[in-house]
Each structure stands twice: as structure tokens, then as C-alpha cells.
Amino acid sequence: IVRNQHSVYPTIDLKKIFKHPEDKNKQKKDAVLLLVIHNKKYYCLEVDDIIRQQRIVFKTLGKEIENLPGIAGGTILGDGRIALIAEVNAIIEIHRSYN
Question: What's this model's pTM, rounded to 2 decimal places?
Fold first, then answer.
């Protein structure tokens, strides 16, 4: 939960949503929180970092992973790496189903 002067926001750790194993040897750094809105309610998404903002071409995923919960699609970055595109509404619904 994140609190500021006037509000309290639930925090969603994306590593837990996507069941990403924690590296015990890696030093934990400060989290970056993205404030998002879903059905007129605010949430904070905890992410590792924001690298940059850029325009992308949205691609649908192949049949093998098209129904991956919380993922809307993918894109190919300028350096050739593949990046998945998160579906914020689905992520919040997954979080709410856990609580």
C-alpha cells in the first residue's frame, strides 16, 4: 500500500503477478511505481525500472502464448530485442482475484 498526503493506493508487484522468481543474491533497489486507474480506482504497479518511452508497433502473439494472462501482445524494439506489452486491466483483475 502506498500513502501520500490525501490518498492510499494498493500496490501490485508485477514480479508476483507474473510469478518471477526472486534472485536472493541480487541487491534490492528502490522500486518504481506507476500510478494507473482501473474502474475509477487508482493502483500502483511496482516495476524494476522505466528505461525509456517510445512508439512501438503492436504485434499479436503466436498461438503458443496468446492467452498469457496479463499480456496483451508484443513488439520488437529498435535494438532487435522482443518486449511484451502488459495489459494493465488484466493485471489488476489478476491481483484482485488473489485478494
Answer: 0.76
